[in-house]
Amino acid sequence: MFLVVLSKPAPIYPTWLGRRTLAAVDACLWPAVWAWIIVAHVPARGLTIRWLCALLVLIACRRLWRALSDNEHYGFSTVRWGKALIGVWVFGYALKLLSQVPI
User: Fold this and answer.
1) 0.85 exceeded by the pTM?
2) Is 90 a domain residue?
């Protein structure tokens, strides 16, 4: 049996002055934040923490390569996760407002 799975090609984003620099910062920032969270908040030290940090460095290198070489196809993680976090925040704020309305 032969199965072919087709995916959509990466979208082409408009390029503008400074996009490559912001993409490079975005590509390195998120793995660095995750490494900081792991090192600062995980009580166990040892080989696992070092392995995870090395994996995050490799992920950052891959993302940086994509951000610099294939910039028109690079989607910002900050925008993607920011939309989700703002949506959760708005939903929570709406629940807070609704809980204060007298019945």
Assistant:
1) no
2) yes
